[in-house]
Amino acid sequence: MMLRLARHSALHSAAALRVAPRALLSTKVETRLFIDGKFVDGVEKKAFATVNPATEEVIAHVSEATEKDVDLAVAAARRAFNHNAPWRTMPSSRRRDLMLKLASLIERDSKELARIESMDNGKPFAENGKVYGATADFHLVVQCLRYYAGHADKITGTTIPVDSQQLVYTIREPVGVCAAIIPWNFPALMLAWKLGPALATGCTIVVKTSEKTPLTALKIAHLINEAGFPPGVVNILSGFGQSAGKALAMHGDVDKVAFTGSTAVGHMIEEYAAKSNLKRVTLELGGKSPMIVFDDANIEQALQASHAGLFLNHGQCCCAGSRLYVQSGIYDEFVKRSAQLAEKRVVGDPMDHKTEQGPLVDKIQFEKVLGFIETGKKEGAKVLAGGGRVGKKGYYVAPTVFVDAKDSSTIAKEEIFGPVLTIFKFDTEDEVVERANRSIFGLAAGVCSRDVGRCLRVASRLRAGTVWVNTYNSFDAAQPFGGFKQSGHGRELGAAGLDNYTELKTVVIPMDKV
Ligand code: NAI
Ligand code: MG
Question: Domain 34-285+491-502: which topology?
Answer without folding.
Answer: Aldehyde Dehydrogenase; Chain A, domain 1 (3.40.605)
